């Protein structure tokens, strides 16, 4: 009898939750934590999916640090058989907004459209305590929605 894990099942380290201080290093810490989780997944994500997850983590945490002024944000990563969900919660009720990208390099505007393009689905849930921005990435790196 084999004890091997079926190829479509998630094995090691399927989720994590970490609270990050609002500081310039938050996105780098979040990328490292996400990378560690992704390395432990079985079966592994393909390179496009892994890169998309890390980029989305970086963008959502950067947006929470840059635009909300809240003291902390909480990063959650959850792996399922076909997807990885990235969620970032903060205490600001203001949702991300689409704006024209600043091609002069002074004001951004590229992050949220990029997240929406890389993810199979995105959502913003607001509550009395703030909001949670989530993005779902297909484990194959291709959008499923």
TrEMBL record:
GO molecular function, one term: protein serine/threonine kinase activity
SUPFAM superfamilies: ATPase domain of HSP90 chaperone/DNA topoisomerase II/histidine kinase
Keyword terms, alphabetized: ATP-binding, Kinase, Nucleotide-binding, Serine/threonine-protein kinase, Transferase
Region forming the signal peptide: none
Domain of life: Bacteria
Record field: compositional bias (Basic and acidic residues): 96-105
Chain residue ranges for the region called Disordered: 88-109
Keyword ATP-binding: yes
InterPro entries documented for this protein: Anti-sigma-factor_SerPK (IPR050267), HATPase_C_sf (IPR036890), HATPase_dom (IPR003594)
Pfam families hit by this protein: HATPase_c_2
Histidine kinase/HSP90-like ATPase domain segment(s): 24-135
Protein name per UniProt: ATP-binding protein
Lineage: Bacteria, Bacillati, Actinomycetota, Actinomycetes, Kitasatosporales
């Amino acid at each position: 009898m084999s004890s091997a894990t079926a190829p479509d099942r998630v094995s090691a380290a399927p989720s994590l939750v970490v609270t990050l201080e609002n500081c310039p290093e938050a996105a780098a810490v979040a990328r490292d934590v996400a990378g560690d989780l992704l390395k432990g997944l079985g079966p592994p994500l393909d390179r496009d999916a892994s890169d998309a997850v890390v980029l989305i983590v970086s963008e959502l945490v950067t947006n929470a640090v840059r635009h909300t002024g809240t003291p902390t944000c909480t990063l959650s990563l959850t792996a399922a058989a076909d997807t990885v969900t990235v969620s970032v919660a903060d205490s600001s009720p203001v949702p991300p907004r689409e704006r024209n990208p600043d091609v002069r390099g002074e004001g951004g505007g590229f992050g949220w459209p990029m997240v929406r393009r890389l993810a199979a689905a995105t959502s913003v849930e607001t509550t009395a305590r703030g909001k949670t921005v989530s993005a779902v990435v297909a484990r194959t790196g291709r959008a499923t929605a």
